[in-house]
Amino acid sequence: EKAGFKHFMLKEIFEQPQAITNTVSGRVNPETGEVSLAEINLSAQECRNIDRIFLVACGTSWHAALVAKYWIERHAKIPVEVDIASEFRYRHLLIDERVLTITISQSGETADTLAGMRIARKMGSKAITICNVVGSTMTREADGTVYTHAGPEIGVASTKAFTSQLAALFLFTIFLGRHRGTIDLAKQQELAQALIGIPAIIEHHLPKIQEQVGALIEGYYDCRDFLFVGRGLSYPIALEGALKLKEISYIHAEGYASGELKHGPIALIDKEMPIVAMVPQDKVYHKTISNIEEIKARQGRLILIGSEGDSHLLTITDDVVWLPKIHEDMNPILYTIPAQLLAYEIATRRGCDVDQPRNLAKSVTVE
Ligand code: M6R
């Protein structure tokens, strides 16, 4: 049932092009870019009436929420707050019927996320859930659902469910932007095309990415700590890379926004410390590069994940994972792939049970 793969996790990493395709197809008109989300139960009028969005989730799903904040604020121009569900449910919430609450959950059963949804609904907010499991508690209680069609995810470490959540959240961004009139037809087409194109790009590059990552890990698999850094849309992916590594290899890892390094974590950097930096050629590229130069000046061991043809990266380190240059909004989906594979390759090199890491359950149904 692992279809020739050594682990479910690797199988699920390779299933991502299909999972994203299944999540997107039938929901977007390839000519006009128009998005329809059958079970969302949110009218155009409601889209216009919302004045704030809360995104609520745990773990990897929370990282998807962090990416969506950038997308929604940029394209649909609504303020978005992102909350870890276990914090959301116990803080003093300022919610009324103009707030839309979106929970993101692969399983649809996570106790804290479910509790967050119930609280928000009680306060008058409409609640939508982005979920992978048909008929799960969250989909039954929510006012509307956007299903991810990732298929069953067996590995405890979430992979294809995450990138499918990103695809669903990007569909939602286009949907919302169009109904609110914050994106025009040309923009809608551009964004939809970018999303429709991403599975083929991943499919084409996956073997090469695995090869590049595999060639790197011998020098890194026995390190004790890792830092992951990124800016803008790459910041949540740095968090996700660090979580994946912790979860399955038991190496201590932290993710930071690149600009935060100088506010403390830079003190950790010496010639023993590996730092994985995401450096797509996006709006914040030059800022990220200057943060990386600071790491280099302190002799940190850098692994860069960047764009093909960016020869400047080779003046910083030899350890570069090259990815194609694509539509900026799709970078979080693409840059997740090497982060997942880095964790996978290191964990298996260390002999860890990647599908069943210690102390973890697939679905956290207690508080
Ligand atoms: O089912 P959910 O998406 O609500 O689960 C949330 C987290 O428990 C989950 O993403 C967890 O962090 C994963 N093991 C990460 O790989």
UniProtKB/TrEMBL annotation:
Q: Name one GO molecular function term.
A: carbohydrate derivative binding
Q: List the EC numbers from the record.
A: 2.6.1.16
Q: What residue stretches are annotated with the SIS domain?
A: 43-182, 216-357
- In its UniProt record, which GO terms are filed under biological process? amino sugar biosynthetic process; carbohydrate metabolic process; fructose 6-phosphate metabolic process; protein N-linked glycosylation; UDP-N-acetylglucosamine metabolic process
Q: Which reaction does it catalyse?
A: D-fructose 6-phosphate + L-glutamine = D-glucosamine 6-phosphate + L-glutamate
Q: Which GO terms describe its cellular component?
A: cytosol
What positions does UniProt annotate as the active site of this protein?
362
Cellular compartment(s): Cytoplasm
Q: Does the keyword Thylakoid apply?
A: no
**Swiss-Prot/TrEMBL keywords:** Aminotransferase, Cytoplasm, Glutamine amidotransferase, Repeat, Transferase
- This protein's record includes keyword Cytoplasm: yes
User: What is the role of the protein in this entry?
Assistant: Catalyzes the first step in hexosamine metabolism, converting fructose-6P into glucosamine-6P using glutamine as a nitrogen source.
Quaternary data: Homodimer.
Protein name, per record: Glutamine--fructose-6-phosphate aminotransferase [isomerizing]
